[in-house]
Write the structure tokens for this entry.
Amino acid sequence: MAIAEATIEDNLNQEKYQHYMEVLSTWGIKNETAAAFISHAYPIERFLDPHGKPIIERIDGSKRYRSLAAYKLSMGIGRVQYQSGGELKWKAGGSSTSRKALYLWVKFQVIMKPNLDNPKIAKLHDYYKNGSSQIVEGQTKVFHPGKGDQRVMRVVRRLVEALFYELIED
């Protein structure tokens, strides 16, 4: 084992990261990806209100999930608005290091060599292959996750959201 890998493992074995490592291990996420994830997600409490609950803002009859949006931005899969000339556009915002680590993990562990014995990975793999469906006005509509890298990043988004809700569970 290289010195850097040993250092990462020693740091991840600290008590303060125990809960994070338990959640990540249920997904089969190993130390290198876990280190990239934890470096941007710790402490999860900074995304919550003083009572430890996610911040949800209600505006004009709709909900804005402020905690989840800030968390996704720190993971590198948030969206930021920018102006180019006279038009407003959206682009990926946040840490590219975390985004790349999660992208590679999904690419290899969910798409190329999925461990379908793990129900969490199997669910992400199914979303990658088949998309999602919702019942709209009594009819089932199938929503496909896109093509190529866009499809992979939508699976990453699903993973990050699931990890957020698992980390804030009591």
